[in-house]
Amino acid sequence: MTEGSHRRIAKGAIAAAGLGWHAVALIIFITSLLFTAAFYLDAGVQNWVSENRNTTVETFMRAVSRYGDWPTHLVLGLLLGGIAYLRGSRRWLWIFVAMLVACTLAGMTTRIIKMSVGRARPHVKTEIRWAGPTFSAKHHAFPSGHSSSSSAFFATLLFASWRAGIACLPIPLLIGFSRIYIGAHHLSDVMFGFLVGASTAVLVAVVLLPRVMREGPPTLLKEG
Predict the structure, then answer these.
(1) Fewer beta carbons within 10 Å, N or C terminal of the chain?
(2) pTM (2 d.p.)
(3) Which of 139, 74, 61 is nearest to 107 (CA)?
(4) Among candidate residues 98, 76, 94, the one with its CA nearest the CA of residue 84
(5) Per residue of the chain (224 residues), what is the pLDDT tens digit?
């Protein structure tokens, strides 16, 4: 490979990395604004869901919620990591490891916050909406663990491959909406979960993905 080719690859890597950083920064900024507004919209969204509840949709959303938690992401990450390993793609293997780390850290962070603030879930009948430190799952609404884990998983992918990341963006959005639809979380719970997930992805990408970002867009073609 000529020196000119190396320069073109380096420029392409820088452009791809820059686009990924700007995309995630924009997502975090927009999520922060939406989170601020979400507290004012919690009641209205819950009322809308209650008034427009559909049995078929609810069944689908419960399935999405059931399979949208961290264990499914863990299995998916391990499966994809195994495929990358067998195909000899060190880049994708490193990406999938980073995605799993981000998902785990986001899940741990939300668990600590849940147990510390003790916000009651929408379906819980109580006058105390913020109970403080508690081990009761009924008061573990804030933030949404499903939303944080899924957004951390796929936002990390966005850093390494913005096309793949954008293509997978509907997944955490659907999971977050399912949590609202079945009454497990408020809108603000889900929005803060997205914020935690995106922030965790930024941290993991800075620490674990610099090599991938330098070497350009990853490929699943066998490296030889």
Answers:
(1) C
(2) 0.78
(3) 74
(4) 94
(5) 454 544 444 444 444 445 456 666 776 677 677 777 888 899 899 899 988 889 999 999 999 999 999 999 999 999 999 999 999 888 899 899 999 999 999 999 999 999 999 888 888 877 777 878 888 777 788 999 999 999 999 999 998 888 999 999 999 999 999 999 999 999 999 999 998 999 999 899 888 877 555 554 444 434 43
